[in-house]
Amino acid sequence: MNENITAITNRIIERSKKQRTDYLTKIDNAKSSKVHRSALSCGNLAHGFAACGKEDKSILKQLNHSDVAIVSAYNDMLSAHQPYETYPEIIKQAVRDTGGVAQFAGGVPAMCDGVTQGQPGMDLSLMSRDVIAMSSAVALSHNMFDGTLMLGICDKIVPGLLIAAMTFGHLPTVFVPAGPMPSGLPNKEKARVRQQYAKGEVGEDKLLEAESASYHSAGTCTFFGTANSNQLVVEVMGLHLPGASFVAPNTELREELTKAAARQVTRLTQQSGNFVPVGKMINEKSIVNAIVALLATGGSTNLTMHIIAFARAAGIIINWDDFADLSDAVPLITRIYPNGFADINQFQEAGGMALLFRELIDAGLLHEDVDTICGQGLERYTQVPTLQDGKLVWIDGPTVSGDAEVIANPGVPFKADGGLKLLKGNLGRSVLKTSSLRDGQEVIQAPAVVFEDQHELDAAFQSGSLDKDFVAVVRFQGPKARGMPECHKLTPPLGVLQDKGFNVALVTDGRMSGASGKVPAAIHLVPEALDGGLIAKVQTGDMILVDGLTGELTLMVDEEELNNRPLAKFAAQHEHQGMGREMFGFMRNNLSGAELGACSLFSEDNV
Protein backbone atom coordinates (compact mmCIF):
# COMPACT_ATOMS: atom_id res chain seq x y z
CA MET A 1 0.00 0.00 0.00
CA ASN A 2 1.28 3.46 -0.89
CA GLU A 3 2.79 4.92 2.29
CA ASN A 4 1.49 8.44 1.66
CA ILE A 5 -2.07 7.21 1.18
CA THR A 6 -1.78 5.14 4.35
CA ALA A 7 -0.54 8.19 6.30
CA ILE A 8 -3.38 10.39 5.00
CA THR A 9 -5.92 7.69 5.84
CA ASN A 10 -4.56 7.38 9.37
CA ARG A 11 -4.82 11.10 10.00
CA ILE A 12 -8.45 11.05 8.77
CA ILE A 13 -9.17 8.18 11.16
CA GLU A 14 -7.58 10.09 14.03
CA ARG A 15 -9.34 13.34 13.16
CA SER A 16 -12.71 11.59 12.91
CA LYS A 17 -12.42 9.47 16.04
CA LYS A 18 -15.04 11.20 18.18
CA GLN A 19 -17.57 11.85 15.41
CA ARG A 20 -17.18 8.34 14.00
CA THR A 21 -17.62 6.74 17.42
CA ASP A 22 -20.77 8.78 18.06
CA TYR A 23 -22.08 7.85 14.63
CA LEU A 24 -21.52 4.12 15.06
CA THR A 25 -23.27 4.28 18.43
CA LYS A 26 -26.21 6.03 16.76
CA ILE A 27 -26.67 3.39 14.07
CA ASP A 28 -26.19 0.56 16.57
CA ASN A 29 -29.06 2.01 18.57
CA ALA A 30 -31.23 2.18 15.44
CA LYS A 31 -30.81 -1.42 14.28
CA SER A 32 -33.28 -4.15 15.15
CA SER A 33 -32.69 -7.83 15.85
CA LYS A 34 -35.99 -8.52 14.05
CA VAL A 35 -37.58 -6.98 11.01
CA HIS A 36 -37.99 -3.28 11.67
CA ARG A 37 -41.75 -3.29 11.17
CA SER A 38 -42.06 -5.56 14.24
CA ALA A 39 -41.81 -2.36 16.31
CA LEU A 40 -44.96 -0.97 14.71
CA SER A 41 -48.42 -1.23 16.23
CA CYS A 42 -51.09 -3.17 14.37
CA GLY A 43 -52.56 0.10 13.15
CA ASN A 44 -49.17 1.32 11.97
CA LEU A 45 -48.48 -1.92 10.13
CA ALA A 46 -51.93 -2.05 8.57
CA HIS A 47 -51.34 1.39 7.10
CA GLY A 48 -47.90 0.31 5.91
CA PHE A 49 -49.16 -2.56 3.77
CA ALA A 50 -52.75 -1.47 3.06
CA ALA A 51 -52.10 -1.07 -0.67
CA CYS A 52 -50.11 -4.30 -1.07
CA GLY A 53 -51.41 -7.37 -2.82
CA LYS A 54 -52.55 -10.46 -0.92
CA GLU A 55 -49.22 -12.29 -1.27
CA ASP A 56 -47.12 -9.33 -0.10
CA LYS A 57 -49.49 -8.67 2.83
CA SER A 58 -49.13 -12.27 3.92
CA ILE A 59 -45.34 -12.00 3.86
CA LEU A 60 -45.29 -8.68 5.74
CA LYS A 61 -47.65 -10.00 8.43
CA GLN A 62 -45.29 -12.87 9.22
CA LEU A 63 -42.55 -10.52 10.50
CA ASN A 64 -39.73 -12.81 9.35
CA HIS A 65 -38.97 -11.71 5.78
CA SER A 66 -37.30 -8.50 4.66
CA ASP A 67 -39.12 -5.46 3.35
CA VAL A 68 -36.91 -3.49 0.95
CA ALA A 69 -37.41 0.22 0.32
CA ILE A 70 -37.12 1.57 -3.20
CA VAL A 71 -36.11 5.24 -3.26
CA SER A 72 -36.05 6.57 -6.80
CA ALA A 73 -35.09 9.78 -8.56
CA TYR A 74 -37.09 8.83 -11.66
CA ASN A 75 -38.44 11.46 -13.94
CA ASP A 76 -38.64 11.37 -17.70
CA MET A 77 -37.12 14.79 -18.34
CA LEU A 78 -33.66 13.71 -17.17
CA SER A 79 -32.24 11.41 -19.80
CA ALA A 80 -30.17 9.57 -17.20
CA HIS A 81 -33.18 8.87 -14.99
CA GLN A 82 -35.81 8.09 -17.62
CA PRO A 83 -34.83 4.36 -17.69
CA TYR A 84 -35.82 4.09 -14.01
CA GLU A 85 -39.50 4.17 -15.04
CA THR A 86 -39.63 0.37 -15.32
CA TYR A 87 -37.29 -0.50 -12.43
CA PRO A 88 -39.79 -0.72 -9.53
CA GLU A 89 -41.74 -3.64 -11.01
CA ILE A 90 -38.51 -5.43 -12.00
CA ILE A 91 -37.17 -4.97 -8.47
CA LYS A 92 -40.40 -6.00 -6.76
CA GLN A 93 -40.52 -9.27 -8.66
CA ALA A 94 -36.83 -9.99 -8.03
CA VAL A 95 -37.25 -9.42 -4.28
CA ARG A 96 -40.48 -11.45 -4.24
CA ASP A 97 -38.51 -14.33 -5.77
CA THR A 98 -36.24 -14.28 -2.69
CA GLY A 99 -39.23 -14.50 -0.34
CA GLY A 100 -39.29 -10.82 0.56
CA VAL A 101 -41.20 -7.70 -0.39
CA ALA A 102 -40.07 -4.44 -2.01
CA GLN A 103 -42.13 -1.28 -1.66
CA PHE A 104 -41.71 2.01 -3.48
CA ALA A 105 -40.93 4.08 -0.39
CA GLY A 106 -40.58 7.46 -2.03
CA GLY A 107 -39.53 9.53 -4.99
CA VAL A 108 -36.98 12.31 -4.70
CA PRO A 109 -36.65 15.42 -6.89
CA ALA A 110 -34.05 15.31 -9.61
CA MET A 111 -33.13 18.41 -11.56
CA CYS A 112 -30.81 18.59 -14.54
CA ASP A 113 -27.99 21.12 -14.43
CA GLY A 114 -27.74 20.82 -18.20
CA VAL A 115 -31.22 22.35 -18.46
CA THR A 116 -30.64 25.07 -15.84
CA GLN A 117 -27.08 26.17 -16.73
CA GLY A 118 -27.09 29.98 -16.84
CA GLN A 119 -30.76 30.06 -15.83
CA PRO A 120 -32.34 31.21 -12.53
CA GLY A 121 -33.18 27.61 -11.64
CA MET A 122 -29.48 26.79 -11.36
CA ASP A 123 -29.47 28.64 -8.03
CA LEU A 124 -31.47 25.72 -6.60
CA SER A 125 -29.14 23.03 -7.91
CA LEU A 126 -26.74 22.56 -5.01
CA MET A 127 -29.50 22.99 -2.45
CA SER A 128 -31.46 20.24 -4.19
CA ARG A 129 -28.88 17.78 -2.84
CA ASP A 130 -29.99 18.51 0.72
CA VAL A 131 -33.66 18.36 -0.33
CA ILE A 132 -33.01 14.93 -1.85
CA ALA A 133 -31.36 13.76 1.37
CA MET A 134 -34.34 15.00 3.40
CA SER A 135 -36.85 13.52 0.95
CA SER A 136 -35.11 10.16 1.27
CA ALA A 137 -35.27 10.48 5.05
CA VAL A 138 -39.03 11.00 4.84
CA ALA A 139 -39.30 7.91 2.64
CA LEU A 140 -37.37 5.79 5.15
CA SER A 141 -38.89 7.31 8.28
CA HIS A 142 -41.77 4.82 8.47
CA ASN A 143 -39.46 2.16 9.96
CA MET A 144 -41.02 -0.46 7.69
CA PHE A 145 -37.80 -1.37 5.95
CA ASP A 146 -34.85 -3.71 6.41
CA GLY A 147 -32.79 -2.59 3.42
CA THR A 148 -32.75 0.09 0.75
CA LEU A 149 -32.27 0.29 -3.00
CA MET A 150 -31.24 3.78 -4.11
CA LEU A 151 -31.99 4.70 -7.73
CA GLY A 152 -30.10 7.81 -8.83
CA ILE A 153 -27.28 8.96 -11.06
CA CYS A 154 -26.77 12.65 -11.69
CA ASP A 155 -25.07 15.63 -10.14
CA LYS A 156 -26.69 16.33 -6.74
CA ILE A 157 -28.88 13.26 -6.71
CA VAL A 158 -26.36 10.57 -5.82
CA PRO A 159 -24.68 12.76 -3.15
CA GLY A 160 -28.11 13.47 -1.64
CA LEU A 161 -28.97 9.77 -1.65
CA LEU A 162 -25.58 9.00 -0.08
CA ILE A 163 -26.16 11.50 2.73
CA ALA A 164 -29.49 9.78 3.40
CA ALA A 165 -27.94 6.30 3.19
CA MET A 166 -25.31 7.28 5.75
CA THR A 167 -27.94 8.88 7.98
CA PHE A 168 -29.89 5.60 7.88
CA GLY A 169 -26.62 3.72 8.22
CA HIS A 170 -28.24 0.89 10.20
CA LEU A 171 -29.83 -0.33 6.94
CA PRO A 172 -28.03 -2.26 4.20
CA THR A 173 -28.08 -0.19 1.01
CA VAL A 174 -27.36 -0.96 -2.63
CA PHE A 175 -27.19 1.71 -5.35
CA VAL A 176 -28.75 0.82 -8.70
CA PRO A 177 -27.42 2.65 -11.81
CA ALA A 178 -29.03 2.90 -15.22
CA GLY A 179 -26.06 3.47 -17.55
CA PRO A 180 -24.87 5.98 -20.17
CA MET A 181 -26.51 6.92 -23.45
CA PRO A 182 -24.79 5.77 -26.67
CA SER A 183 -22.00 7.99 -27.95
CA GLY A 184 -23.23 10.87 -30.04
CA LEU A 185 -21.49 13.95 -31.41
CA PRO A 186 -17.95 13.88 -29.96
CA ASN A 187 -17.51 16.17 -26.97
CA LYS A 188 -14.61 17.99 -28.65
CA GLU A 189 -16.84 18.87 -31.60
CA LYS A 190 -19.67 19.99 -29.31
CA ALA A 191 -17.23 22.29 -27.47
CA ARG A 192 -15.98 23.66 -30.79
CA VAL A 193 -19.50 24.59 -31.91
CA ARG A 194 -20.17 26.24 -28.53
CA GLN A 195 -17.12 28.43 -29.02
CA GLN A 196 -18.18 29.21 -32.59
CA TYR A 197 -21.52 30.35 -31.24
CA ALA A 198 -19.82 32.47 -28.58
CA LYS A 199 -17.83 34.18 -31.34
CA GLY A 200 -20.94 34.72 -33.45
CA GLU A 201 -19.72 32.41 -36.22
CA VAL A 202 -22.78 30.14 -36.09
CA GLY A 203 -26.37 30.75 -35.07
CA GLU A 204 -28.67 29.10 -32.58
CA ASP A 205 -29.88 26.61 -35.19
CA LYS A 206 -26.39 25.11 -35.57
CA LEU A 207 -25.79 25.23 -31.83
CA LEU A 208 -29.05 23.40 -31.08
CA GLU A 209 -28.26 20.85 -33.78
CA ALA A 210 -24.89 20.13 -32.17
CA GLU A 211 -26.27 19.97 -28.64
CA SER A 212 -29.07 17.65 -29.77
CA ALA A 213 -26.60 15.36 -31.51
CA SER A 214 -24.58 15.15 -28.29
CA TYR A 215 -27.47 14.73 -25.84
CA HIS A 216 -29.66 12.49 -27.93
CA SER A 217 -31.23 9.60 -26.06
CA ALA A 218 -32.02 8.00 -22.71
CA GLY A 219 -29.01 7.47 -20.46
CA THR A 220 -26.35 9.48 -18.73
CA CYS A 221 -24.49 12.19 -20.67
CA THR A 222 -21.28 10.61 -21.92
CA PHE A 223 -18.68 13.18 -20.81
CA PHE A 224 -16.87 12.65 -17.50
CA GLY A 225 -18.77 15.24 -15.54
CA THR A 226 -20.33 14.95 -12.11
CA ALA A 227 -22.90 12.28 -13.07
CA ASN A 228 -20.35 9.75 -14.31
CA SER A 229 -17.92 10.75 -11.55
CA ASN A 230 -20.70 9.85 -9.10
CA GLN A 231 -21.09 6.42 -10.64
CA LEU A 232 -17.36 5.73 -10.50
CA VAL A 233 -17.13 6.85 -6.85
CA VAL A 234 -20.12 4.73 -5.79
CA GLU A 235 -18.70 1.61 -7.44
CA VAL A 236 -15.26 2.17 -5.92
CA MET A 237 -16.91 2.38 -2.49
CA GLY A 238 -18.49 -1.01 -3.17
CA LEU A 239 -22.09 0.21 -3.32
CA HIS A 240 -22.71 -0.96 -6.89
CA LEU A 241 -22.48 -4.49 -8.17
CA PRO A 242 -19.10 -5.00 -9.90
CA GLY A 243 -19.06 -3.45 -13.36
CA ALA A 244 -22.59 -2.09 -13.10
CA SER A 245 -21.82 1.61 -13.53
CA PHE A 246 -21.48 2.00 -17.29
CA VAL A 247 -23.63 -0.72 -18.85
CA ALA A 248 -26.03 0.79 -21.37
CA PRO A 249 -29.71 1.23 -20.42
CA ASN A 250 -32.52 -0.76 -21.98
CA THR A 251 -30.35 -3.83 -22.58
CA GLU A 252 -30.77 -7.38 -21.29
CA LEU A 253 -27.53 -7.12 -19.30
CA ARG A 254 -28.72 -3.90 -17.65
CA GLU A 255 -32.00 -5.53 -16.61
CA GLU A 256 -30.26 -8.59 -15.19
CA LEU A 257 -27.93 -6.34 -13.17
CA THR A 258 -30.97 -4.55 -11.76
CA LYS A 259 -32.52 -7.86 -10.72
CA ALA A 260 -29.22 -8.95 -9.18
CA ALA A 261 -28.94 -5.70 -7.19
CA ALA A 262 -32.43 -6.28 -5.82
CA ARG A 263 -31.54 -9.82 -4.75
CA GLN A 264 -28.22 -8.69 -3.30
CA VAL A 265 -29.69 -6.26 -0.78
CA THR A 266 -31.81 -9.08 0.68
CA ARG A 267 -28.58 -11.00 1.38
CA LEU A 268 -27.33 -8.14 3.56
CA THR A 269 -30.29 -7.68 5.90
CA GLN A 270 -30.49 -8.73 9.55
CA GLN A 271 -32.77 -11.63 8.54
CA SER A 272 -30.20 -13.04 6.08
CA GLY A 273 -27.67 -13.89 8.77
CA ASN A 274 -25.13 -11.76 6.89
CA PHE A 275 -25.98 -8.32 8.25
CA VAL A 276 -24.04 -5.52 6.49
CA PRO A 277 -25.36 -2.09 7.55
CA VAL A 278 -24.09 0.50 5.12
CA GLY A 279 -22.87 2.86 7.86
CA LYS A 280 -20.39 0.24 9.07
CA MET A 281 -19.53 -0.98 5.59
CA ILE A 282 -18.44 2.50 4.51
CA ASN A 283 -15.50 3.68 6.62
CA GLU A 284 -12.52 6.02 6.35
CA LYS A 285 -10.72 3.68 3.94
CA SER A 286 -13.77 3.51 1.67
CA ILE A 287 -13.84 7.31 1.52
CA VAL A 288 -10.11 7.51 0.73
CA ASN A 289 -10.62 4.93 -2.04
CA ALA A 290 -13.37 7.14 -3.49
CA ILE A 291 -11.08 10.19 -3.53
CA VAL A 292 -8.18 8.21 -5.02
CA ALA A 293 -10.32 6.93 -7.89
CA LEU A 294 -11.76 10.40 -8.51
CA LEU A 295 -8.26 11.87 -8.74
CA ALA A 296 -6.80 9.03 -10.82
CA THR A 297 -9.50 9.63 -13.42
CA GLY A 298 -9.62 13.45 -13.32
CA GLY A 299 -13.22 13.49 -12.14
CA SER A 300 -15.54 16.36 -11.32
CA THR A 301 -14.51 19.08 -8.86
CA ASN A 302 -18.08 19.06 -7.53
CA LEU A 303 -17.12 15.91 -5.63
CA THR A 304 -14.66 17.95 -3.55
CA MET A 305 -17.78 19.17 -1.76
CA HIS A 306 -20.07 16.16 -2.09
CA ILE A 307 -17.65 13.61 -0.67
CA ILE A 308 -17.02 15.90 2.29
CA ALA A 309 -20.79 16.13 2.88
CA PHE A 310 -21.68 12.44 2.73
CA ALA A 311 -18.53 11.44 4.62
CA ARG A 312 -19.53 13.86 7.38
CA ALA A 313 -22.96 12.21 7.49
CA ALA A 314 -21.07 9.00 8.38
CA GLY A 315 -18.97 10.70 11.05
CA ILE A 316 -15.88 10.93 8.83
CA ILE A 317 -14.18 14.32 8.64
CA ILE A 318 -12.19 15.18 5.53
CA ASN A 319 -11.04 18.46 4.01
CA TRP A 320 -9.28 19.88 0.97
CA ASP A 321 -5.84 19.21 2.43
CA ASP A 322 -6.70 15.52 2.19
CA PHE A 323 -7.75 15.91 -1.45
CA ALA A 324 -4.58 17.86 -2.28
CA ASP A 325 -2.22 15.47 -0.52
CA LEU A 326 -3.90 12.46 -2.12
CA SER A 327 -3.62 14.21 -5.48
CA ASP A 328 0.15 14.44 -4.97
CA ALA A 329 0.26 10.67 -4.35
CA VAL A 330 -2.06 9.53 -7.16
CA PRO A 331 -1.18 9.58 -10.88
CA LEU A 332 -3.72 10.54 -13.54
CA ILE A 333 -4.33 7.37 -15.56
CA THR A 334 -7.42 8.10 -17.66
CA ARG A 335 -8.18 10.56 -20.41
CA ILE A 336 -11.93 11.12 -20.59
CA TYR A 337 -13.46 14.42 -21.72
CA PRO A 338 -12.76 17.09 -20.49
CA ASN A 339 -9.35 15.56 -19.64
CA GLY A 340 -9.14 14.02 -23.11
CA PHE A 341 -11.26 13.26 -26.15
CA ALA A 342 -12.74 9.91 -25.14
CA ASP A 343 -16.21 9.58 -23.66
CA ILE A 344 -17.39 7.20 -20.94
CA ASN A 345 -18.33 4.51 -23.48
CA GLN A 346 -14.79 4.53 -24.86
CA PHE A 347 -13.51 4.26 -21.28
CA GLN A 348 -15.74 1.21 -20.86
CA GLU A 349 -14.43 -0.30 -24.09
CA ALA A 350 -10.82 0.32 -23.04
CA GLY A 351 -11.28 -1.77 -19.90
CA GLY A 352 -13.63 0.29 -17.77
CA MET A 353 -14.00 -0.08 -14.06
CA ALA A 354 -12.56 -3.61 -13.87
CA LEU A 355 -9.26 -2.48 -15.38
CA LEU A 356 -9.25 0.71 -13.30
CA PHE A 357 -9.65 -1.36 -10.11
CA ARG A 358 -6.88 -3.73 -11.20
CA GLU A 359 -4.45 -0.94 -12.05
CA LEU A 360 -5.07 0.99 -8.83
CA ILE A 361 -4.86 -2.16 -6.68
CA ASP A 362 -1.66 -3.36 -8.35
CA ALA A 363 -0.11 0.10 -7.82
CA GLY A 364 -0.97 0.01 -4.11
CA LEU A 365 -3.31 2.99 -4.42
CA LEU A 366 -6.53 1.45 -3.06
CA HIS A 367 -7.23 0.02 0.37
CA GLU A 368 -8.26 -3.60 -0.22
CA ASP A 369 -9.25 -4.32 3.37
CA VAL A 370 -12.71 -2.81 2.97
CA ASP A 371 -16.22 -4.25 2.91
CA THR A 372 -18.50 -4.02 -0.11
CA ILE A 373 -22.01 -5.18 -0.91
CA CYS A 374 -20.32 -8.27 -2.41
CA GLY A 375 -18.18 -9.10 0.61
CA GLN A 376 -14.72 -8.21 1.83
CA GLY A 377 -12.02 -6.93 -0.49
CA LEU A 378 -12.04 -5.52 -4.00
CA GLU A 379 -11.08 -8.57 -6.06
CA ARG A 380 -14.66 -9.07 -7.23
CA TYR A 381 -14.51 -5.58 -8.74
CA THR A 382 -11.79 -6.60 -11.19
CA GLN A 383 -14.42 -8.77 -12.85
CA VAL A 384 -16.95 -7.79 -15.51
CA PRO A 385 -20.60 -8.83 -15.77
CA THR A 386 -21.75 -10.71 -18.84
CA LEU A 387 -24.58 -12.94 -19.99
CA GLN A 388 -23.93 -16.61 -20.69
CA ASP A 389 -26.93 -18.51 -22.01
CA GLY A 390 -29.09 -15.69 -20.68
CA LYS A 391 -27.66 -15.98 -17.18
CA LEU A 392 -25.73 -13.19 -15.43
CA VAL A 393 -22.19 -14.20 -14.52
CA TRP A 394 -18.97 -12.37 -13.72
CA ILE A 395 -15.72 -13.19 -15.50
CA ASP A 396 -12.18 -11.91 -15.06
CA GLY A 397 -11.77 -8.43 -16.49
CA PRO A 398 -8.99 -7.23 -18.80
CA THR A 399 -5.43 -7.06 -17.56
CA VAL A 400 -4.19 -4.54 -20.13
CA SER A 401 -5.74 -1.42 -21.59
CA GLY A 402 -7.67 -1.76 -24.80
CA ASP A 403 -6.72 1.83 -25.62
CA ALA A 404 -3.60 3.28 -24.01
CA GLU A 405 -4.78 6.78 -24.96
CA VAL A 406 -7.78 6.33 -22.65
CA ILE A 407 -6.52 4.19 -19.75
CA ALA A 408 -2.81 4.20 -18.95
CA ASN A 409 -0.70 2.10 -16.62
CA PRO A 410 0.02 3.91 -13.32
CA GLY A 411 3.73 3.37 -13.99
CA VAL A 412 3.45 5.46 -17.16
CA PRO A 413 0.63 7.88 -16.34
CA PHE A 414 -0.72 10.79 -18.32
CA LYS A 415 0.24 13.02 -15.41
CA ALA A 416 2.29 12.32 -12.30
CA ASP A 417 -0.41 13.65 -9.98
CA GLY A 418 -4.18 13.57 -9.76
CA GLY A 419 -4.64 17.01 -11.25
CA LEU A 420 -6.26 18.74 -8.29
CA LYS A 421 -4.52 21.59 -6.48
CA LEU A 422 -5.42 23.33 -3.25
CA LEU A 423 -4.76 27.05 -3.65
CA LYS A 424 -4.04 29.13 -0.56
CA GLY A 425 -3.22 32.77 -0.03
CA ASN A 426 -4.65 36.02 1.23
CA LEU A 427 -7.74 35.50 -0.95
CA GLY A 428 -8.55 32.32 0.97
CA ARG A 429 -8.69 28.63 0.06
CA SER A 430 -9.80 27.30 -3.28
CA VAL A 431 -9.53 24.24 -5.52
CA LEU A 432 -8.07 24.22 -9.01
CA LYS A 433 -8.46 21.38 -11.48
CA THR A 434 -5.15 21.15 -13.34
CA SER A 435 -5.64 17.83 -15.13
CA SER A 436 -7.31 19.47 -18.15
CA LEU A 437 -5.08 22.54 -18.42
CA ARG A 438 -2.89 23.10 -21.44
CA ASP A 439 0.85 23.28 -20.94
CA GLY A 440 1.86 26.77 -19.82
CA GLN A 441 -1.56 27.59 -18.37
CA GLU A 442 -0.83 26.49 -14.80
CA VAL A 443 0.35 29.95 -13.69
CA ILE A 444 -1.52 33.16 -14.53
CA GLN A 445 -0.64 36.58 -13.13
CA ALA A 446 -2.80 39.35 -14.55
CA PRO A 447 -5.05 42.28 -13.64
CA ALA A 448 -8.46 41.49 -12.20
CA VAL A 449 -11.71 42.27 -13.95
CA VAL A 450 -14.50 42.09 -11.39
CA PHE A 451 -18.01 40.81 -12.08
CA GLU A 452 -20.90 40.12 -9.76
CA ASP A 453 -22.77 37.90 -12.19
CA GLN A 454 -21.64 35.46 -14.88
CA HIS A 455 -23.93 37.18 -17.40
CA GLU A 456 -21.95 40.42 -16.92
CA LEU A 457 -18.82 38.64 -18.11
CA ASP A 458 -20.57 37.38 -21.21
CA ALA A 459 -21.75 40.92 -22.02
CA ALA A 460 -18.21 42.25 -21.59
CA PHE A 461 -16.92 39.49 -23.87
CA GLN A 462 -19.46 40.36 -26.55
CA SER A 463 -18.40 44.01 -26.39
CA GLY A 464 -14.76 43.08 -27.06
CA SER A 465 -13.50 44.68 -23.85
CA LEU A 466 -11.97 41.40 -22.64
CA ASP A 467 -9.46 40.96 -25.46
CA LYS A 468 -6.50 41.03 -23.06
CA ASP A 469 -4.77 39.12 -20.29
CA PHE A 470 -6.90 39.17 -17.13
CA VAL A 471 -8.20 37.23 -14.15
CA ALA A 472 -11.99 37.20 -14.08
CA VAL A 473 -13.25 37.62 -10.53
CA VAL A 474 -16.87 36.49 -10.31
CA ARG A 475 -18.09 36.94 -6.75
CA PHE A 476 -21.27 36.66 -4.69
CA GLN A 477 -21.81 33.21 -6.22
CA GLY A 478 -21.16 31.33 -2.97
CA PRO A 479 -23.53 29.10 -0.99
CA LYS A 480 -25.03 31.85 1.19
CA ALA A 481 -25.19 34.44 -1.59
CA ARG A 482 -26.94 32.47 -4.31
CA GLY A 483 -26.86 28.81 -3.31
CA MET A 484 -23.60 28.38 -5.26
CA PRO A 485 -24.78 27.93 -8.85
CA GLU A 486 -22.44 26.47 -11.44
CA CYS A 487 -20.88 29.14 -13.61
CA HIS A 488 -20.46 26.95 -16.67
CA LYS A 489 -21.68 29.78 -18.90
CA LEU A 490 -18.22 31.31 -18.42
CA THR A 491 -16.41 28.44 -20.13
CA PRO A 492 -17.06 29.22 -23.83
CA PRO A 493 -16.08 32.94 -23.78
CA LEU A 494 -13.01 32.35 -21.61
CA GLY A 495 -12.06 29.43 -23.85
CA VAL A 496 -12.32 31.66 -26.93
CA LEU A 497 -10.06 34.28 -25.34
CA GLN A 498 -7.60 31.55 -24.38
CA ASP A 499 -7.57 30.32 -27.99
CA LYS A 500 -6.80 33.87 -29.11
CA GLY A 501 -3.60 33.69 -27.09
CA PHE A 502 -4.65 35.68 -24.05
CA ASN A 503 -3.69 34.51 -20.58
CA VAL A 504 -6.97 34.25 -18.71
CA ALA A 505 -8.05 32.68 -15.44
CA LEU A 506 -11.07 32.67 -13.16
CA VAL A 507 -11.44 33.22 -9.42
CA THR A 508 -14.90 32.64 -7.96
CA ASP A 509 -16.72 31.62 -4.82
CA GLY A 510 -19.10 29.74 -7.11
CA ARG A 511 -18.76 26.39 -8.83
CA MET A 512 -17.83 25.27 -12.31
CA SER A 513 -19.34 22.34 -14.17
CA GLY A 514 -17.83 18.90 -13.91
CA ALA A 515 -17.20 19.29 -17.64
CA SER A 516 -14.96 22.31 -17.14
CA GLY A 517 -11.21 22.40 -16.84
CA LYS A 518 -9.63 24.01 -19.91
CA VAL A 519 -9.44 27.45 -18.27
CA PRO A 520 -7.50 27.81 -14.97
CA ALA A 521 -10.30 28.28 -12.44
CA ALA A 522 -9.82 28.84 -8.72
CA ILE A 523 -13.29 27.79 -7.61
CA HIS A 524 -15.24 27.13 -4.39
CA LEU A 525 -13.32 30.00 -2.79
CA VAL A 526 -13.71 30.26 0.98
CA PRO A 527 -14.54 32.46 2.70
CA GLU A 528 -17.13 33.57 0.18
CA ALA A 529 -17.80 37.25 -0.52
CA LEU A 530 -21.00 37.32 1.54
CA ASP A 531 -19.06 35.98 4.53
CA GLY A 532 -16.57 38.85 4.32
CA GLY A 533 -14.00 37.05 2.19
CA LEU A 534 -11.26 39.19 0.67
CA ILE A 535 -12.75 38.56 -2.75
CA ALA A 536 -15.30 41.21 -1.74
CA LYS A 537 -12.50 43.82 -1.67
CA VAL A 538 -11.00 43.05 -5.10
CA GLN A 539 -11.15 45.93 -7.57
CA THR A 540 -10.76 45.85 -11.33
CA GLY A 541 -7.08 46.39 -12.14
CA ASP A 542 -5.70 44.66 -9.03
CA MET A 543 -3.01 42.11 -9.84
CA ILE A 544 -3.86 38.51 -8.95
CA LEU A 545 -1.62 35.45 -9.00
CA VAL A 546 -3.20 32.04 -9.66
CA ASP A 547 -0.38 29.51 -9.38
CA GLY A 548 -1.32 25.92 -10.07
CA LEU A 549 2.24 24.77 -9.47
CA THR A 550 3.00 26.22 -6.04
CA GLY A 551 -0.64 26.44 -4.92
CA GLU A 552 -0.60 30.20 -4.37
CA LEU A 553 -3.69 32.38 -4.72
CA THR A 554 -2.76 35.97 -3.94
CA LEU A 555 -4.29 39.41 -4.36
CA MET A 556 -1.16 41.48 -4.92
CA VAL A 557 -2.30 44.64 -3.14
CA ASP A 558 -0.65 46.27 -0.16
CA GLU A 559 -2.11 45.04 3.13
CA GLU A 560 -2.60 48.53 4.49
CA GLU A 561 -4.63 49.52 1.45
CA LEU A 562 -6.73 46.37 1.76
CA ASN A 563 -7.43 47.13 5.40
CA ASN A 564 -8.81 50.53 4.37
CA ARG A 565 -11.00 49.18 1.55
CA PRO A 566 -14.68 48.55 2.25
CA LEU A 567 -16.25 45.22 1.45
CA ALA A 568 -18.43 45.24 -1.64
CA LYS A 569 -22.13 44.95 -0.88
CA PHE A 570 -24.25 42.11 -2.23
CA ALA A 571 -26.61 43.97 -4.53
CA ALA A 572 -28.47 41.06 -6.10
CA GLN A 573 -31.06 40.18 -3.49
CA HIS A 574 -33.57 40.28 -6.33
CA GLU A 575 -31.93 37.05 -7.49
CA HIS A 576 -33.56 35.36 -4.49
CA GLN A 577 -36.96 35.75 -6.12
CA GLY A 578 -38.53 33.77 -8.94
CA MET A 579 -38.31 30.17 -10.17
CA GLY A 580 -38.92 28.99 -6.61
CA ARG A 581 -35.84 30.63 -5.17
CA GLU A 582 -37.89 32.58 -2.62
CA MET A 583 -38.76 29.27 -0.93
CA PHE A 584 -35.14 28.38 -0.23
CA GLY A 585 -34.02 31.33 1.90
CA PHE A 586 -33.92 29.27 5.12
CA MET A 587 -31.64 26.71 3.50
CA ARG A 588 -29.41 29.21 1.68
CA ASN A 589 -28.80 31.11 4.92
CA ASN A 590 -27.71 27.91 6.65
CA LEU A 591 -25.36 26.46 4.05
CA SER A 592 -21.88 25.84 5.35
CA GLY A 593 -18.77 26.89 3.46
CA ALA A 594 -17.66 24.88 0.45
CA GLU A 595 -14.88 23.10 2.38
CA LEU A 596 -17.49 21.82 4.83
CA GLY A 597 -19.56 20.48 1.95
CA ALA A 598 -21.80 23.55 1.39
CA CYS A 599 -24.40 21.65 3.38
CA SER A 600 -27.35 22.82 5.47
CA LEU A 601 -28.03 19.50 7.18
CA PHE A 602 -25.44 19.44 9.93
CA SER A 603 -22.97 21.76 11.57
CA GLU A 604 -19.25 21.15 11.94
CA ASP A 605 -19.85 19.51 15.33
CA ASN A 606 -23.07 17.68 14.53
CA VAL A 607 -23.23 14.52 12.43
Report on this model:
This protein has 607 residues and is of the alpha/beta class. It folds into 3 domains: 3-182 and 217-396, no CATH class; 183-216, no CATH class; 420-575, Glucose Oxidase, domain 1 (3-Layer(bba) Sandwich). It contains 23 helices and 16 strands. It has helices spanning 3-15, 17-30, 42-49, 54-62, 87-97, 113-116, 125-140, 157-167, 187-198, 204-214, 226-236, 252-266, 278-281, 284-297, 303-313, 320-329, 344-350, 352-362, 454-463, 479-482, 491-499, 559-564, 585-589; strands at residues 67-72, 101-107, 147-151, 173-176, 371-372, 375-376, 383-388, 391-396, 420-425, 428-433, 443-451, 470-474, 504-508, 521-526, 543-547, 552-555. The strands form 4 sheets. It has an 8-stranded mixed sheet with strand order 9-10-14-13-12-11-15-16. A 4-stranded parallel sheet has the order 2-1-3-4, with helices on both faces. Strand 15 (543-547) and strand 16 form a beta hairpin. The longest helix has 16 residues, at 125-140. It starts with a helix and ends in an 18-residue tail after the last helix. The mean pLDDT is 94.
